[in-house]
Design brief:
The protein is mainly beta. The chain has a 22-stranded antiparallel barrel. The chain is globular. Residues 901-912 have low confidence and may be disordered.
Length: 934
């Protein structure tokens, strides 16, 4: 030892260094990006992040649990560049609409494929899954990452990996949360009683014009003395949420387990809306021998969600809050319901309706996977996964015979009173995947890997709907005691898919990477002549930091260039869209069958080809990280209706005829500004931009979507086409509009609608930014989310700014205070007249841009020395906030609009909906919690 001249110092995750031996030596080790390279789940396996050629984002559990939402897909908002996440509504149990790199379809949907522990799952029941069971999610965005999923991968893929046990001492964790929710804004500019009565008196219609002591107009004194109801204060309430969870994990070297259970209870910000949920999970892995491992990952969730009416239904509380007149009170002086309230010409009390017409949905969701891994040789493994995704729902609706609604629907004394409807749906989807994998490194620099496999999948759907009328009392609701109009309907559908898949990869010296993927799918959903399709991808990667010419660049930790090109598909159409079907009915009292649709033997899936290039860079020992991607995706063979000759007996059928394009960029930056033993301060941010354009439609024909949107060649999807509002004539108070030629007129003509170039429901950009500050056991973090450049048609304003035509309901204050009254007035509110009409124009089209403080977390982890006498491993107390404030010029309650109205309109082609129409707004939530580990 006395002859030694150098000292070698090494540590896990750090670069080994040799230094000259001196009496005093100071060594600062640098992180080694290769040794700490993260292994993540990707398509049909796992891989080191450095070996990936595709665009894959990882969202870890700690990022999800910071967002107190009841559906884990909503927690993805702002967590991955290029992934647009919009809550469908603010109701408990509502999921999110997710688009990855834009809208890729007009009619077949843009939802990504979700895979949990190897099992594809439906996106409709995420509220039945406990987000705290998730270890991380891998978001696959480009062709190299998604092509292996073939006909289901064109919209991107989200892989969900749940938690697993580790060998060693059993860890027990208990978590409890409770909190409150309120509406996100107090912006509510509706008239109070005095304003509405004055307005009615002015126009000579309504209670203000006839409610005076002599049966004529009310006096100023009578108006001033009248009671006033703020319906927003009456209907909105403080919601309450509580959640309790227990999980255990541990095991031995051979057997590892993770077990969890959770109870979740949320009352929403309006009565009648709630979510109660119970979930359980069991994950077990067992090593049978050195060459054989087996495992199961199963979860079950049951939930009950209270349902409310939606859209412009008079029974929708979010319609009622705008429409009910402020001079009506919800209750009589004796506390009974005031049943004299009229909304939209219908006598209904919203609170009586919620109490006497209950509606809810019970859901059961089971996801299970059995996996086996057999190491045939050191380099070759056989892997099989058998899984099931089972969903069952029973929706209950009961109108009690004594309710106002029953008497409206059945006004005659002899009419049957009371109505019950039960809708039962069930879908069971099973999957069996078999694969052989090969991986070997030759001469320490040549790594070869390959996968070949076969996958079979089948799904069966059942629906039974039972309804009956005529109940003697609201205390009994059994279907069997209904007296009349009993009816039962139902249907069953199913689909099957058989697939063959393969992938291969080669890496030289961890520098140069080549990936290939191939999949062939056969689906029962498509025509007999087009049931099989082939999908492929090629990916290339270059880890430049390992090159000799960069070895001495000390501030560079990682620099990688990657790119890919490939194809994938979208099979989200009806189970029998390609089949000829028959309809059934009766003729002259006899049962009949008749052709309902022509078959299309050539109908196939929509196809996407995507090319992308990306850069991953890390600097200063991974203290600063940058990811940048550009992409272009072309979707062909869009599924659209085509005209048929009338001699066929049919007017149209679905064919593969359209094309559209998406292109954009994604940028994500994160960095540790301060990183010491006690202090950590980090920043992160991301921004995405996507542009889409319709390239081809059937015979160039435009497609009208909703009221005011258009799908047209050469324009973005769902571009607005509307009559343009020109303001108010200062000479006479008339509403003015532009003709299609640009002239100004006071005559509204729907034929004057023009395309509003650049105005669509989709944002021009969106993203997030946030910060985290930690000192010892104290942590403060927050994230902002922003979205800009999109436009929303505010249909609520169509009613509340109706200029006198809808005087029977409550109205916006501006109609009273800002109205034109005399020549020379410059205003945007026309003269108020009962003869006016409310027309759909750009008057109600608003910029939907917003900036929102999405979530804030303040937490304190107690020092372990305090816990040791209590035999505890960990105690963490925290407070969380969701949607704490929003900056926007949008006049509605919430600029995050996820659902188009369902009444008489097709759904929108993406998460940013075109219309705000009395939907359930997002809530501001503050949660408090404690986590205890043993």
């Amino acid at each position: 030892m006395s002859s030694a001249k150098t000292l070698q110092i090494s540590y896990i995750g750090m670069q080994t260094q040799e230094v000259e031996i001196k009496p005093s030596v100071k060594v600062v080790l640098k992180s080694d990006a290769q040794t700490i390279d993260e292994v993540v789940v990707v398509a049909y396996g796992s891989a080191k992040k450095s070996s990936l050629t595709g665009s894959v984002d990882i969202v870890k559990a700690e990022q999800l649990t910071k967002v107190p939402v009841n559906s884990f897909d909503q927690a993805l908002q702002g967590k991955s560049a290029g992934v647009q996440v919009t809550a469908t509504t603010g109701r408990p149990g509502a999921g999110a609409n997710i688009k990855i790199r834009g809208t890729s379809s007009i009619s077949a949907g843009s939802d990504p494929l979700y895979v949990i522990d190897g099992v594809p799952m439906s996106s409709s029941d995420f509220a039945s899954i406990n987000a705290n069971d998730i270890e991380y999610m891998s978001i696959l965005k480009d062709a190299s990452a998604t092509a292996i999923y073939g006909s289901r991968g064109s919209n991107g893929v989200i892989l969900v990996t749940t938690k697993k046990g580790k060998s060693g001492k059993t860890a027990v964790n208990v978590r409890a949360q409770f909190g409150i929710s309120t509406k996100t804004t107090d912006k509510f500019d509706m008239m109070n009683a005095q304003e509405k009565l004055t307005y009615e008196r002015q126009l000579g219609s309504g209670y203000g014009a006839t409610g005076g002591a002599a049966g004529g107009p009310m006096t100023d004194e009578e108006i001033a003395a009248h009671r006033s109801t703020n319906w927003a204060d009456e209907i909105f309430r403080t919601g309450f949420t509580q959640s309790y969870e227990l999980n255990m994990s541990g095991g031995s070297e051979k057997t590892k387990f993770y077990i969890s259970g959770q109870y979740y209870d949320q009352d929403a910000i309006v009565p009648g809306s709630y979510l109660q949920r119970g979930t359980a999970r069991v994950n077990v892995e067992h090593t049978v021998s050195d060459r054989l491992k087996v495992g199961v990952a199963t979860s079950a969730g049951v939930s009950k969600e209270g349902l409310l009416r939606t859209d412009r239904n008079a029974l929708n509380p979010f319609n009622y809050v705008y429409s009910a007149n402020p001079y009506d009170a919800p209750y009589n002086e004796d506390g009974s319901y005031n049943t004299d309230i009229t909304v939209g010409g219908v006598p209904l009390n919203i609170f009586e309706n919620i109490d006497n017409n209950p509606s809810y949905i019970n859901r059961l969701k089971i996801v299970g996977a059995f996996n086996l891994e057999w190491k045939i040789w050191d380099e070759i493994k056989y892997v099989t996964v058998a899984g099931i995704d089972f969903n069952q729902a029973i929706q209950y609706q009961y109108n009690k015979p004594e309710s106002q609604l029953s008497n409206i629907l059945s006004p005659k004394p002899t009419d049957p009173k009371g109505y019950r409807n039960d809708n039962f749906t069930q879908r069971a989807t099973w999957l069996w995947t078999n694969m052989l994998t090969y991986e070997k490194t030759f001469n320490s620099v040549h790594t070869v890997k390959a996968v070949v496999g076969m996958e079979a999948q089948a799904s069966k759907y059942r629906r039974i709907n039972a309804m009956v009328e005529g109940f003697a009392t609201g205390k009994l609701d059994a279907i069997t005691i209904g007296s009349t109009n009993k009816d039962v309907i139902g249907n069953t559908t199913e689909w099957k898919m058989l697939s063959y898949l393969g992938s291969a990869g080669y890496t030289y010296d961890d520098k140069y990477i080549v990936d290939l993927a191939l999949r062939r799918d056969g689906s029962s959903r498509f025509g007999a002549d087009s049931q099989f399709g082939t999908f492929w991808a090629v990916g290339l990667g270059w880890n430049m930091e390992r090159e000799k010419f960069l070895e001495d660049v000390e501030w560079l930790t990682r620099l990688k260039i990657r790119g890919s090109v490939g194809t994938s598909g979208n099979n989200n159409i009806g189970d029998y869209a390609a089949q000829g079907v028959y309809g059934y009915g009766s003729y002259d009292g006899s049962p009949t069958a008749y052709p309902g649709r022509l078959p299309n033997p050539t109908l196939s899936w929509e196809k996407s080809m995507q090319a992308s290039v990306g850069l991953d860079a890390s600097f200063f020992d991974s203290r600063l990280n940058v990811t940048f991607d550009v992409y272009k995706r072309k979707t062909t063979d869009l599924l659209l209706a085509t005209r048929l000759s009338q001699t066929s007996g049919f007017s149209s059928r679905i064919d593969n005829v359209g094309e559209l394009e998406n292109k954009g960029y994604e940028l994500a930056i994160s960095g540790d500004i301060i990183k010491t033993n006690d202090w950590t301060f980090s920043l992160n941010g991301m921004i995405s931009q996507n542009k889409n354009k319709i390239l081809k439609l059937y015979e160039g024909n435009d497609i009208t979507t909703g009221w005011n949107n258009l799908v047209k060649e050469g324009y973005p999807i769902n571009v607005y086409k509307m009559v343009r509002w020109a303001g108010v004539n200062p000479a006479n108070g008339d509403a003015l509009y532009y003709t299609k030629d640009g002239d100004i007129t006071n005559v509204y003509n729907s034929d004057d609608a023009v395309i509003l170039d650049g105005k669509t429901p989709d944002p021009k950009y969106f993203g997030s930014f946030g910060a985290k500050l930690a000192y010892k056991g104290i942590e403060l973090s927050g994230d902002f989310y922003f979205s800009g450049g999109n436009y929303i048609y505010n249909h609520i304003s169509f009613f509340t700014l109706s200029d006198g035509s809808m005087i029977d309901q409550n109205l916006d204050k501006r109609l009273l205070y800002d109205q034109w009254t005399k020549p020379g007035d410059v205003t945007n509110i026309p003269q108020q007249r009962l003869s006016n009409q409310s027309y759909q124009s750009t008057r109600y089209l608003e910029d939907g841009s917003y900036l929102r403080l999405r979530n804030v977390t303040l937490a304190y982890t107690l020092p372990k020395r305090w816990l040791k006498p209590l035999h505890m491993e960990n105690v963490r107390i925290y407070a969380q906030g969701l949607n704490l404030f929003t900056i926007t010029n949008f006049s509605g309650l919430d600029p995050e609009v996820g659902d188009s109205p369902t009444t008489g309109l097709p759904s929108t082609a993406g998460p940013a909906a075109t219309v705000l129409d009395f939907s359930f707004p997002a809530a501001r939530t503050v949660m408090f919690g404690i986590e205890i580990g043993f």
